[in-house]
Amino acid sequence: MLNPDPTTSDEAVREYILSQVNKDQLRFLTCGSVDDGKSTLIGRLLYDTKLIFEDQLAALERDSTRHGTVGDDIDLALLVDGLEAEREQGITIDVAYRFFATDRRKFIVADTPGHEQYTRNMATGASTADLAVLLVDARNGLMTQTRRHAFIASLLGIHHVVLAINKIDLVGYSQERFREIEAEFRAFAQGFDFETLVAIPLSARYGDNVTAPGDNMPWYQGPTLLEHLETVEVGRDDAARPFRFPVQWVNRPNLDFRGFSGTIAGGRVSVGDEVVVAASGRTSTVKTILSQVGEAQSAASGEAVTLVLADEIDASRGDVIASAAARPDVADQFAAHLIWMSEDALLPGRSYLLKIGTRTVTASVTEIKHKINVNTFERVAAKTLELNEIAFANLALTVPVAFDPYEASRTTGSFILIDRLTNATVGAGMVWFALRRATNIHWQALEVDQAARAQSLGQIPAALWFTGLSGSGKSTVASLLEKKLHVRGRHTYTLDGDNVRHGLNRDLGFTDADRVENIRRVGEVARLFVDAGLLTLVSFISPFRSERAMARELFPDGRFIEVFIDTPIEECRRRDPKGLYRKADAGELRNFTGVDSPYEAPENPELHIRTLGRDPEEIVDEIIAYLEANDLI
């Protein structure tokens, strides 16, 4: 066989690549309840569009024999279920992304898991999608997870939905069943902001109405799934939005060059444009735009560039450079829709890390306005959020950040919450609007500061935070320590858990949420006492590491001393000075630490006091020795 003309071959390749570059692209996801056939549907699309190589097909045939769930047929779901755990269990766990193309359009499809515990993965796939293919098993109809996924898709700004009523072959290709499910979903989704909602009956296993109509449903005259995906107009143009540029890195290889590197999140920028660093309000003009191929006159959304500004203005990682004529909001409080993704409940007042764009700050949920029943859309009062629950909440940040409402920009209007101890992502949110309630309140400058008060008292103020189980001896040790410090002429104050609950915290119970708020308030009060120059003794069970860490951050380094009064629970039960363990063991007292509520022991306290076989005098002397060694008394 003669070799083809290389010139002709190269030209054909160039033409093909150019045709692919110029094609419109649609990002969509498949979602719905478990076992509704999402992976099989994507496998069918890849198979029917002839985008499977021969070696892939051979591997698929082998895997179908080992892991298949469709008898002797090829199990198309295995094209997408790439994880070994998924193949063994027959479920999709991770988000699997696949690319395919037809003559009319390019596609990136995200196959998202259906199991309830993997709802967070579905939200990940939906965050970049233009269209959602929501699968429903014709036998089962709408499930709770179907409704949840539809609601999340709406929250995440997906305006185009295909209701793919799958496995229609298992109900005898029934038109009546199709119309019943379609009517139920349209009534359910009536309040959603979907621009298009197309219902298609199909069989992913046999291919009916996936890429071709088939002969089993002559009563359906609408488009096949692929026809609709090729022609739907999604109308998303990030380049037409105001310019947003989250700074990823300050590029300064030498003293003569300073640029800001990152990916444009929205809009377009050109040399000479006036821009602003959103947080500081400092303005400048764009002097140079550096792209991957050199200098450019302009750049648009999605491009990774380095901006050189005409003026030396301060900006760092996490700042947002924006159009001076269309600035984002800058605030330290906002309201947002929140999807909770952790098995540990969200507790208002607890400190989390919030990542928005390239900026990471400390934040907390100050109030859950309501959570949403995904079946009825009823707004339900709530103090906490459990796994997969969705709520509308207020958040407070330690510093102001730049953002846009989510409907204006997915990139600068979305955020995640991160557990500060485990570094796990626990929630995802969509900013709705800024809260302006505290913008007119500023720190009042005081002429007498902590150093002046401490000097007049002749001591170094600090907080000694006593933590341990009920009955461990915290209050006894703190009381005796205060006496000895008083004899030495030290100025002190003790905040005791029981005493504070008679006044400041009398409205709080003993749920996890109330315990978090209890410690938040006490931490703030202790900070004020230390600011007044006092040695402040705080005696609280404070069972959660997260809240003790939050309290620590309120104080300068070296001014927070965590004292772990470590008494085994058996000994605490034996002492039981207030009869609380007896009541808790009998079920008469709920949410009692150590019995039906956890205690998270400190990992690295300044003082770890083991009390067994020791009297309070000896323990207090050890604490005083620590204070002396660290020049606190």
Structure report:
The protein folds into 4 domains: 12-231, P-loop containing nucleotide triphosphate hydrolases (Rossmann fold, 3-Layer(aba) Sandwich), CATH 3.40.50.300; 238-323, Translation factors (Elongation Factor Tu (Ef-tu), domain 3, Beta Barrel), CATH 2.40.30; 330-434, Translation factors (Elongation Factor Tu (Ef-tu), domain 3); 450-629, 3-Layer(aba) Sandwich (Rossmann fold), CATH 3.40.50. The chain is 27% helix and 28% strand. The protein is built from 16 helices and 28 strands. The strands form 5 sheets. Strands 7, 8, 9, 11, 12, 13, 15 and 16 form an 8-stranded antiparallel β-sheet that branches. A 6-stranded mixed β-sheet has the order 2-3-1-4-5-6, sandwiched between helices. It is globular and about 95 Å long. The relative contact order is 0.07. Mean pLDDT is 85; it is low at 81-93.
